[in-house]
Write the structure tokens for this entry.
Amino acid sequence: MHCRRIAFLMFVLGMLVMASGATFAADGQKDLDQATELQLSAESLGDLEKVADLCESAIKKGLSKDD
């Protein structure tokens, strides 16, 4: 279950990063940027869980799911 959550959120993160011309709320964008940086340097499942948490936080702060 935990791995499914991480895999789903990694997919969502990838889709968000690939979206061009998207406008995000400032706080949500900040969390997405942090998640992207952490994803690139992740070395453990704990790191990937932090990526998932940052993605969820970005959505809660106004990042559109459509973006």
Summary: The mean pLDDT is 81. Residues 2-18+26-60 form one domain. Helices lie at 2-18, 26-41, 45-60.
